[in-house]
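Two proteins, back to back. First:
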Amino acid sequence: MTTFLDTSALLALLDEDDLNHSRADDAWRQLLGSDEPLVSTNYIVVESLALVQRRLGMEAVKALESDLLPLLELEWIDETTHRSALRAFLTVSRRQLSFVDCSSFEVMRKRGLSRAFAFDRHFSEQGFELIAQ
């Protein structure tokens, strides 16, 4: 079964001070041991690079780029998915729900994915199973 990776999981893996680091590390080891496909999006990569740079610095950015991202299949957000995500984002109109989250949900539905490696409650609110909870 393919698992979608969110920014919240990537950050928790890199930040040893993150409250979810231990659970993230355990889940990551299980995922890698299972050989199941791991997928994310180019929007998650952009969001993660910016967040990791700001919170943890460039050494952590380098670790993200060299250690984690090569293990992921990246879905590149096309214009149709971008527009669908933007419509959902504007329709929901919730301050705490990000556009990147909406684009992730669109990709997951399009690909028939039901599991997310995330520490973001919005995934479960959208009906996706969260691992590492």
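And the second protein:
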Amino acid sequence: MKIQLLVITLTVINLVLLLFVLAQAESTTAQSVTPVLRAQAIELVDDHGQIRAQLNVESNGEAVFRLRDATGAIRVKLGAAEDGSGLLLIDESTEPGVHILVKPTGATLTLTGKDGQQQVLKP
């Protein structure tokens, strides 16, 4: 009879501890969202570990965001520096197709065709 009472008491204690641990885990999960992520660089990789996107600050102070295709070639580059910003869209042969550049001297939009011919637009 004493052994049964001991087993029941231990079972009840274990259930209370289990409920306490589950309640703590649930509240910890809800609070684990970090409001600010601080890093010197962020990289997104695919299932094979290949870098597909990068966000970092270059040694010259320019903040750069690059998107890469499955082969690792850069296809999109977005940059911001003290003297302006730029957007570069690159074709399959890794040549610039669209290049938008904004500097204190003005903005330019350069379109490059398959034959390498460029058309530059300035406001």
